[in-house]
Amino acid sequence: MSADVINKAFLATEEDFLALVRKQWLNDPHMASVGSCCLVGIVCSGMLYIANAGDSRVVLGRLDNTYKEVKAVPLSSEHNASVESVREELRSLHPDDPQIVVLKHTVWRVKGIIQISRSIGDAYLKSAEFNRDPLLPKFRVPEPFDKPILSAEPETLVQKLDPEDQFLIFASDGLWEHLSSQEAVDVVNTCPRNGIARKLVKAALREASKKREMRYSDLKKIDRGVRRHFHDDITVIVLFLDFHLISQSYWQGPLVSIRGGVGVSGHSIC
Question: Mean pLDDT, to the nearest integer, of 222-245?
Fold first, then answer.
């Protein structure tokens, strides 16, 4: 296991998906507009590997022995054009394109279309061969381009796990839009483990309903297809860490501890 192995896995997934888009191009051009953020966490031999492409986030809950509190430690950064450093990165990668990031209706977007700067898929922003008919005009970039606008390469973090590391929260941006990293950690730390991911989703939805000046019960009644206008899709996985187990080199448990999970109408995280 290494950061290089994970990086190659991301790029291989990207290549295979683009090959599928190419194969289906004439029959289903809409596939060229399909994309997903990808957030991966791996625990191996006492080490934690985090890889992220997109605007999902993973937060570590770590015990502060001095204050006897569990503090939130963000382990990933969001690749979203609303972040100034992301806009600077895009401008440095595309110095000849003054429209690489555009402020549209008070929201920064890549080419005025999409907020994220990294993803799996979104072939129409990766290769000019998909930026044409029969893809719908609303997905097309007006100016020709000769190199990918978005990237599938993840940002990777590798660090040793410590006894103070209590749990990890993996979530799509729908959760972080309504809860801070510390608020999410406080929920996990103060509630029973059983159903904790669902409790985080509920906490986020309650905040979303408050912002809309409506009751949570009324928000829940809205059809999922329509509810996208009230809040972004939310996916959450909480992984509790047992330092005694993960530090043992002779661990003979399952090689895959968590498989993908799907939350409210959308993204999968593994």
Answer: 75
* First and final C-alpha spacing in the chain: 16
pLDDT of the residue at 102 = 94
The model's pLDDT over 29-63, given as tens digits with 9 standing for 90+, comes to 999 999 999 999 999 888 999 999 999 999 999 99
Half-sphere exposure of 63 (CA within 13 A, CB side): 14
> Quick one: three-class SS letters along 144-195?
CCCCCCCECCCEEEEEECCCCEEEEEEECHHHHCCCCHHHHHHHHHHCCCCC
Tokens 């977007």 locate to 109
Q: Average pLDDT in the 181-200 region?
A: 94
Q: What is the 3-state secondary structure (H, E, C) of 95-133?
A: CCCCCCEEEECCEEEECCCECECECEECHHHCCHHHCCC
Alpha-carbon torsion 20, 22, 24, 25, what sign?
positive
